Amino acid sequence: MARMDEAPIFVVGSMRSGSTMLRLILDSHPRIAIGAETGFMGGLLAARRIPGWKHGAEWFDRIGWTEQELDARLREFYTGMFERHAESQGKARWGDKTPFHTSHMEEMGQVFPDAVFVGIVRHPGAVAASSRYRRRRPGRGSTRARARRRCAKD
Prior knowledge:
Elements: E1 9-12, H1 19-27, E2 32-34, H2 40-48, H3 67-88, E3 93-97, H4 105-111, E4 116-119, H5 124-129, H6 143-153
Helix pairs in contact: 2-3
């Protein structure tokens, strides 16, 4: 296990919750590197369970590996990738922020048992009112706008 001040940091929260701002704040720390969203858990989970195959959940067992051994290799692989990024930034500690990962915290904790999870929660009403989710006026090219123009001509 890594020392607490070396453990990976995972920022989790829903989209539009302020997780990017939190990532930028943490990334500004002289020892912490949290780059752009990676979605790496998609690859990690696919390595743990081969999708669409009846033996996909235990494929590694068929060649004499345990789940713990596979997780140790996956931890080594992904840690190496993120450490290289941190080192390129002159920083010692790495982390990741991907909203998609919020639903994979249990698996992340299994592979990275020393990880620190930082959760961010925003009021659901504020998320819904967020600029990305606000209903936009249809543009001239939208189906609704074209239908309105046709009706106005008739």
